[in-house]
Amino acid sequence: MMGLTPRACGQLAGLFLLCAGLVPAQARSPTPLSAPSFAPSVVAASATQRGYAAELERASPQAVQALYAAADRGGLVELPPGLYVLPRTLVLKARTRLQGAGRGVTVLQLGPGVNANLIETEQFAQLQGTPNLAQAPADITVRDLSLDGNFLSSKWTDPARQVLNERGSCLALYGRRLHVDVEASNCAEHLLYTEGQGARASEEVSSQFRLDGMVAGEECVVFRGVGDSRIEHLGAGVCGAKRMQPSTSAQRSRWYPQEPGFDGLVLERQPPYEGTVEIGFAHVFGAFSGWGVRTRGNARVHAKHLISESSLGGVLVDKLTWGAISLLDVHSNGKSMGFKPTPAPRAALRVESEVGFSVAHGTLFRTVGSAEGFTAAELAGKAGQFNLVLLNSKNPQTGEDHQGEGVWLSGEGN
Predict the structure, then answer these.
(1) What gap in Å lies between CA 34 and CA 62, rounded to an integer?
(2) Distance between CA atoms of 395 and 221, rounded to whole angstroms?
């Protein structure tokens, strides 16, 4: 058994009786959560799915309980390398910093059959859907971790895969001033779900997100607030994977059951949600039954660099959305990954905005993997400005150029 150093015991006083009396209370200051005991070395179940390079030691039950206790206390919770299999949701309260030793080095994995969020903010269920931002927890940081929702038992293309959890997001957040920098993968619902709406009490509330990951049972990311936040970096793909599993193929989106499939990145601002956002870089791929990127309602969206790849549809801008995309890249559009009946491919870019939306430079590329027959750009609505380059290549199956209309222009003032 790996012991706790006297210094570490000082920080964990109250969590372990064996720590009592080693360090005076006045000497305590935030320090890393030292590794209690580990079980014999095992290969993390997620290692083969996401290419984690080395074997990860599986944290003992005592170490996992120490994590829960430290999170309940708040402050700095710093995790050493290892695989932490969680038997229930890890709840983060205000002014908590959860920090690992690095992506792929510290891994939190939801236990099989838990069917709950892996990490959520305090009072998430009570606040969800309500305009009570002022009562929401604030100043929460999650970084330098890999999160594994344990949705599938093996790679999403493995014929022998099984569903281990049918519900739960890797991150479910309702709060102010959130800071996220993690990898999240293999989640039964979303890699990331966020909310935060209501009176702001004259304070800064915006949050920042940096996220990479793949395989979400439903939408990869649903952003509903807090408003005026920044998605600084996003790389997310294989969205709507429930459609690919026999036991869950008939399930509809939890939030958008009227839709026949699942989108990749959803940015929503319609009552009560406040999902206005600025995007530095986002690359969304593999929304095989929906749009790679979609806005809903009066979402203000300003994106520097946006890529939608290998999805049924590229980008859909709602009629109430306004803003701009500086650099847009949509390629390999119309993919449905063999769904039966095969859904009709959607446009690479469809803009319905009636309040003004622009794309400074967009490249719409029919390349390897693209379906046949979709329109490259459908520009409706009003007062839009677009600078687009349409590229084509040969279909490797036919040897001929990919077929489909170029630009369909309607509306007023486009």
Answers:
(1) 12
(2) 31
CA angle 152-345-319, nearest 5°?
100
Question: What secondary structure letter does DSSP report for 88?
Answer: S
Is residue 104 a contact partner of residue 76, using CB atoms and an 8 Å limit?
no
Residue ranges in the chain whose pLDDT is less than 70 = 1-54, 338-340
* Integer-rounded Cα radius of gyration of the chain: 23
- Given a contact cutoff of 8 angstroms between Cβ atoms, the answer to whether 96 and 121 are in contact is no
Residues 6 or more apart whose Cβ sits within 8 Å of residue 248: 163, 166, 217, 242
Query: In Å, what is the CA distance from 53 to each residue of 41, 50, 57, 72?
Result: 14, 9, 13, 31
CA–CA separation, 311 and 327 (whole Å): 18
Q: What is the spatial distance between Cα 361 and Cα 364, in angstroms, rounded to a whole number?
A: 10
Residue type, 400: E
- Return the exposure string of 210-223: e unless at least 16 CB atoms fall within 10 Å of the residue's CB, then b: bbbbbbbbbbbbbb
> Which among 396, 397, 364 has a CA at the least distance from the CA of 379?
364
Nearest to 290 by CA among 225, 341, 218, 235: 218
Residue with the two structure tokens 């700095």 = 76
CA 93/CA 109 separation, integer angstroms: 20
Tell me the CA distances in angstroms from 339 to 151, 164, 250, 392, one per residue in order: 20, 22, 12, 25
- Which pTM was predicted? 0.87
Distance CA 90, CA 306 (A): 32
Give dist(CA 303, CA 297) in Å, integer. Answer: 17
Give the start-end residues of each E strand in 248-354: 265-269, 277-287, 291-297, 300-309, 313-317, 322-331, 349-351
d(CA 238, CA 235): 11
Helix and strand numbers (H, E) in the chain are 4, 24
pLDDT in tens, 133-161: 999 999 999 999 999 999 999 999 888 99
Q: Give pLDDT, residue 5.
A: 33
Examine residue 257 and say whether the peptide bond preceding it is cis (omega within 30 degrees of 0): no
Strands (E), 16-94: 75-78, 82-86, 90-92
Cβ neighbours of 180 (radius 10 Å)? 23
Dihedral of CA 358/363/369/370: which sign?
positive
In this structure, which amino acid lies at residue 113?
G
